[in-house]
Design a protein that fits this description.
It is a single chain. By secondary structure, the chain is mostly beta strands. It folds into two domains: about 300 residues, no CATH class; about 55 residues, no CATH class. It has four helices and 16 strands. It has a 16-stranded mixed beta sheet that branches. It comes from Thermocatellispora tengchongensis.
């Protein structure tokens, strides 16, 4: 008799605002087996008191209302309930939350930027809520900089017919630790576009997730990461299809170079019994540029209904294609330049999805800087 395997959905059924409901992870758990727990600096075991500081600087479009509220604000926790111990620790420890609201039918005239700037030693905890009322449209940038040990939760509540586009930049200093959950709750015919760029930090573990409350929801989750020697960059995605006729697409690409560079990508998609007509696909590709780098890529797809429009996943990790390099060298391009051209081409398709010109140029410059190392 073969071993009985538990369905994927059991990994995501536990949720609670109470920290005591989550045991301290040991590293043997499925959701923690790739994460080097000692490098979390106590975020996972309660040994990181809130003695640090991360400043939230807001540059908002005139149509966007920005508020700093206390823990008792009723808008906090309406879309997302923590699903692991660090997320629950962040929820139990934050003191003030930032709430952004775009009123019904308003179209933001420019990008809203939240810069989260770490101020050195000590752990800090945060919470952000972004609410788009029905038929509203907005573009948001979350820009993470500085040095910090930081855990936070971000809730995106996208109302019926609303459209939210988010770019999240993890451009921390080399010593930073960041563990974050981004959750998008989509209403009827709502559109959510997320672009994650992870470059800086000693350890970054980002968990984007999506849920739907009514048919017609449409989510695109795109990501880019470049891992250097000694870095651990981890992305754990969950798309939970629980209503009919919704769509999701996930595409993440990463490059790794240097000794002990480690990338982890986990892509979980659940299509529940009631989610007939779902159309979903997830894709991850890693480019390993040097010896000593490691990429773990695990796409998971659980389909509990036979009535789907489409469902698939793919994952690949490998080295630069020698044929591509040879083709360019045969046309007089030196090896180093040929290598850069191939890597630029690898990232080009996802970078083109960044609609904000300033951010797109910043990401291109960051990739160029990585290639110069």
């Amino acid at each position: 008799m073969g071993l009985e395997t538990k369905p994927l959905s059991t990994l995501h059924e536990k949720s609670s605002f109470d920290l005591a409901d989550f045991e301290v992870p040991t590293g043997r758990e499925e959701e923690w087996r790739f994460t080097p727990l000692p490098r979390l600096r106590g975020l996972h075991n309660g040994k990181a008191p809130a003695s640090g500081h991360v400043v939230v600087e807001v540059d908002a479009a005139p149509e966007v209302t920005v508020e700093t509220v206390g823990r008792d604000d009723p808008r906090i926790g309406t879309a997302y309930v923590p699903r692991d111990r660090v997320s629950a620790q962040a929820y139990s420890a934050f003191e003030k939350a930032t709430v952004l609201t775009v009123p019904a039918q308003a179209v933001a005239s420019r990008t809203t930027t939240l810069t989260l700037r770490g101020r050195g030693q000590g752990a800090a905890y945060g919470h952000i809520v972004v609410r788009l009322e029905p038929m509203a449209e907005a573009v948001l940038v979350l820009d993470h900089r500085g040095s910090a040990v930081y855990a936070d939760n971000v809730e995106f509540v996208v109302g019926d017919g609303a459209t939210l586009k988010v770019v999240s930049l993890q451009d921390w200093d080399d010593d930073a630790v960041h563990v974050s959950h981004h959750h998008a709750q989509l209403g009827r015919d709502a559109t959510f576009r997320s672009f994650v760029v992870t470059l800086g930090g000693d350890l970054v573990r980002l968990s984007p997730s999506v849920s739907y409350t009514a048919p017609g929801g449409d989510a695109d989750l795109t990501g880019l990461y470049f891992v250097d020697a000694g870095q651990h960059l981890e992305h754990r995605l969950l798309v939970d299809h629980s209503v009919p006729n919704c769509r999701s697409n996930v595409e993440y690409k990463g490059a790794l170079q240097g000794e002990d560079a480690h990338a982890v990508w986990i892509g979980d998609v659940i299509i529940r019994v009631e989610a007939e007509g779902t159309d979903t696909y997830e894709y991850n590709r890693n480019l390993i540029l040097t010896d000593g780098a490691r990429a773990d890529s695990v796409p998971n797809l659980e389909i509990l209904t036979g009535e789907v429009a489409g469902a698939g996943h793919a994952s690949a990790s490998g080295r630069l294609d020698d044929e591509h390099i040879f083709y360019l060298q045969a046309r007089g391009i030196p090896y180093d330049e040929a290598r850069r051209l191939v890597i630029r081409g690898f990232f080009a398709q996802v970078i083109e999805k960044i609609e904000i010109e300033e951010i797109r140029q910043r990401v291109l410059a960051a990739v160029e800087a990585e290639l110069e190392k």
